[in-house]
Amino acid sequence: MEAVILAGGYGTRLRPLTYKIPKPLIPIANKPMVMHIIDSLPQKVEKVILAVSYKRDVLQKYLEENPPEGRELVLVEEKEPLGTGGAIKNVEREISGDFLAFNGDVISSLDPSVLTNTLIEKKAGAVISLWRVNDPSHYGVVEMRDGWIRRFVEKPRLNEAPSNLISAGAYALSYDVLDLIPPGRVVSLEREIWPILVEKGMYGMEFRGYWTDAGTRERVLEANSLILQGMGKKLIAGNGSEILGNVTEHTSIGKNVIIDGSAEVSNSIIMDGCILENGSKVVDSIIGPEERIAGRVIGEIFCTGYSNVPKN
User: What one-character-per-residue DSSP string does 161-179 give?
Assistant: First the structure.
């Protein structure tokens, strides 16, 4: 069985960090975002297909040096943006049967085998993961009956939403779905393909635990916190790091990081090779690799050459 990960975005909301590294490699709890998805896949997934575009060479180099054990890995380039449906159509030659598909920036507690098992059990055209939110007005919302999806409503007013269940960005799709996607152009799964599948039989599976789409600084830090909570930790640090300062509240520290004695860090991600000097303070921030911080970084993505110099 194959799994497709849509990992071609530019990560514009995570700039300036994504000027340096592609979004799929941003570390969450010291593991690249894309590896959280790959590691969650059921054993029967033997091939992982990444639909990629931006900084493909950087992503490919990392995955060649850190291959997922027991799985074939294929990167398929998307030369022009094709949308969620077009990106899947673009990797069709690598797919041999029913398959899983994931938005590449979703971090969750979902067990994808539930989707594949339900696809077989219900003989559905598609099974999509669903997450319950308090305010569905910013999302595509589903209306269901006995688990079968009847319609999607895009960003409804709160008092007009048919439910508070939204698509969680992970799907099990029958091979026949590929025939519904026109080739060679931008295609949106959500706007063009889902309405057709509703008529053919589309099932929704709600899951519990945690979920976030890690496309902004706030959401990446939320994902980091959720993963650490699941591990039962408030702090994680990579090999070779020296922590002398005060580090609190769901912080991930990469490899070979030095945090001097009077430095303070809270609810942040500090990437490999950073030095936080005495008197520095980092809060609610993501610090790119190999940075030296001497002042205050509060609520920022800091990456040399693209960020403002932090103010003392």
Answer: -S-SEEEEEEEEE-GGGGG
Fold identical between 2-213 and 234-302? no
Rg (CA), the chain: 20
Hey, where are the domains in the chain? 2-213, 234-302
Buried b (16+ CB within 10 A) or exposed e, 106-142: bbbebebbbbbebbeebebbbbbbbbebeebeebbbb
Residue in 91, 3, 98 with CA at minimum distance from that of residue 47: 3
Contact 136, 158 (CB under 8 A): yes
CB under 8 Å to 293, separation ≥6 — which residues? Answer: 263, 274, 275, 276, 277, 280, 282, 287, 302, 310
Give catalytic residue positions: 155
CB atoms within 10 A of CB 10: 15
Assign domain 2-213 one CATH number from 2.60.40.2230, 3.60.20.40, 3.30.420.10, 3.90.550.10.
Answer: 3.90.550.10
Phi, psi of 189 (to 5 degrees): -55, -45
With a CB cutoff of 8 Å and minimum separation 6, the contacts of 146 are: none
- Mention every residue, 6+ apart, whose C-beta is less than 8 A from residue 298: 281, 282, 283, 284, 285
Per-residue pLDDT, 16:
92
Encoded tokens for 158: 């709160």
- Give the residue carrying structure tokens 């589309």: 202
100-112 pLDDT per residue, tens: 999 988 999 999 9
HSE-CB at 238 with a 13 A cutoff on CA atoms is 19
Instruction: Name the band, by pLDDT with cuts 50, 70 and 90, for residue 301.
Output: very high
**Which secondary structure element, helix H or strand E, spans residue 65, and what is its range?**
helix 56-65
Domain at 234-302: CATH architecture: 3 Solenoid (2.160)
